[in-house]
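Q: Could you predict the 3D structure of TolC family protein?
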Amino acid sequence: MKKLLLPALFLFFGISAGAQNKEWTLQECVEYALENNISVRQSELDVELSEIEISDAVGNLLPRLNASASNSWNTGLTQNVTTGILQTQTTRNFSAGATASMNLFDGLRNVKQLQLAKMSRLASEYSLEKMKDDITLFVANSYLQVLFNKESLKVIEAQHEITLEQLERVQELVNAGSLPKGDLLEIKATAANEEQRMIVAANNVRISLIALAQTLLIKDYENFDIAERDYEVFGNEVIEVPVSQVIANAEEERYEVKVAQANLEMAKKEKEIAKGAYYPSLGAFFNYNTRESGANRILAGGQDPNEPYRQIGIVQSTQEAVVAPNFVTEVGNPLPFFEQLENNDGISYGLQLNVPIFNGFSTRNAVKRREVNILRSEYQLEQAKLDLEANVYQAYTDAKGALKAYEASLVALEAQTLAFEYATERYNVGLTNAFDFSQAKFNFENAQSEVVRTKYEYIFNLKVLELYFGVPVTELKF
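A: Sure. Here are the predicted structure tokens for TolC family protein:
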């Protein structure tokens, strides 16, 4: 049953691999991740927002211009806008105006706000680059994990081929009575164990491929696969560099420190902006306005020739009538729309000075808060340098240790290869039993697996160290 299950399993993986549209290289995976990763996209949005903040800051340095217009109807006792007399009427009134203003001096806060916006953009760009570095390492680690799992599967498959050859040979010798049946059972047990391990190894390959696809936001898990190639170990020069120089390069090149430094500069600039509120502010304004009305206008006026006077009251003591001139007016149609606008326009302009005297300690407290933020940013910068130094030491130690482990695994593989060849020769002539042969083969397989593991571990740790040394992501060689 197992002999049928195993070929079927590998046939499935073979069909799946044959049906894929593309085999991804590490460089393609990194480039795709940098273009599509959600975290990278969010960091790119932060850069776009910082560009908008710069535009806002530039806009604060420019004059403001606003226009307004109004058209209304009034019914009832209202003032005639032409005569100034209250009367019951229905009138339409139109008014329009434009106002221009400009901040001439505000303690240089607008200028410094522009400088702060540019610093914020730089900090966002640093954060974006740091995010790209992190994503690159994460993708590289996932990619190398897939390669390691595939190489491990190949090691087990190669050993299984040897086991199957030995199984066939031992079967013939047992049938001929040259070897005991126990040797055959030992070889069968070894073959069964290898089949089980191949299934687990194939499953590990599939799981690591799915994990890499998820990192790249690729949903077609079944058809996703990587291009298999032998990644060589090279670029050991950075390990020979003194760790103090690696730390110095990291402090100059790494974005963790650059972001912290940018945040400190921004905190200092925010304090300068807050202190600008201590100074007076001076602004200029200019206003133009005009109006038009649909009410009738007075054409002429004078005393009524037919009734020049009219009684307006009676003197109580004498009962004499009190009279006043009886004026009559002649009302005509309103002037044309644009003629009224021209006749009724006017302008106003001037300067406005605001002097801060007492504002409930708000300005002083704002400055003090900015001073606290400066101290916090200084601590964060110092912590970033300490963390970076610790990370560099860790990466340097890991790379050195991984190199030694890789070199030791090569020596061990050479020794285990000779031991396995010797055990095979002895087993073929009947000088050792199947158990001892299986142990020698198992040790040989472990040595091969250890070479694969230490190789990819060293490659990854070396790339981490190169990043700290200042090698750009685009120039990392795998």
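Q: Anything worth pointing out?
A: Residues 1-20 have pLDDT under 50 and may be disordered.
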